[in-house]
Amino acid sequence: MKTLLITPPFITPNSPYPATQILTGYLIKKKINVTQYDLSIAALNHIFSTSGLKKIFTQKFVRSSGDNLSSSIYKSRDNYIRNIELVMKFLNRRETGLSGILSEKNVFPMLTATGIADEFLTNDIWYGAFERGVYIASIFLNDIVYYIQKNIDPLFQLNKYAEKLGIFPSFSRIEKNISLRSGLVEKIYLNLLDKKISEYSPSIIGFTIPFPGCFISALKCCAFIKKKKPQIITILGGGFCNTEFTELRETGLFKYIDYLVTGTDPKILYDSKTEKHLLFR
């Protein structure tokens, strides 16, 4: 049996979240056939790529009432598409020599920058070319995030997804969101998940949920797996599960997952609808 451990979208992309990597290393020592996949970083790398931005900017543009900023970003779309690979190479530290280009003011759009930008970019005493480059590159990405939120997916953020839905919601509200037609962002990470499953052919897939901002996307992944590969066992675990599901009463969650791992003693729930006992721990 093969086990696939996944970090779901979206978690702070500054560095890989270590949970699945550490657990994978431990399980390998136990002679378990396992690998891990950071779906969060993979999805962001796809969104912030030439092909990803072409998909984003070829979506039907819906101008929000009075949203001149979104309109300005759309008009500058060729600049974002042309320079996204350069920006991502720099932020991924693959091309740190680009800091001189990136640190130059007015080279790239900075439409979501605040008034602090001028002070930050001109103060050579405290900030060097690399720091200014990181700031400009970050604003460059923030422009794109703003555009996605206004025109494609209002739940999308760089470091979380639908966070408010993950904090003490009614399960009916969660289920309604899961059943919504897939948008562009969701299609991107589900396609990447599908490719990974086809490549690795796991029997078990475990998702770490450290924060509420990746709970909904993990459930959407599980719903996708149950529909396409129902024979795969799905498991949720992680810090969010340990704190929010210590006294689970909602059995509807098990329509999408097989097991829930928490920091509590093993318990058994009875689902009257399916007449099954559901074990979680």
> How much of the polypeptide forms β-strand, as a percent range?
5-15%
Q: Please mark out the parts with pLDDT under 50 across 5 or more consecutive residues, or reply none.
A: 268-272
**CATH architectural group of the largest domain:** 3-Layer(aba) Sandwich
Biggest sheet architecture: 5 strands, parallel
Q: How many distinct beta strands?
A: 7
Number of helices: 12
> How does the overall form come out from the CA principal axes?
globular
Radius of gyration: 21 Å
Major sheet: arrangement of strands: 2-1-3-4-5
Tally of separate domains:
2
- The CA-CA distance between the termini, in Å, is 22 Å
Describe the protein.
This protein has 281 residues and is α/β, with parallel strands linked by helices. It has two domains: 3-44 and 162-280, Rossmann fold; 60-151, no CATH class. It is built from twelve helices and seven strands. The protein has a five-stranded parallel sheet with strand order 2-1-3-4-5, sandwiched between helices. Strands 6-7 form a two-stranded antiparallel ribbon. Residues 268-272 have low confidence and may be disordered.
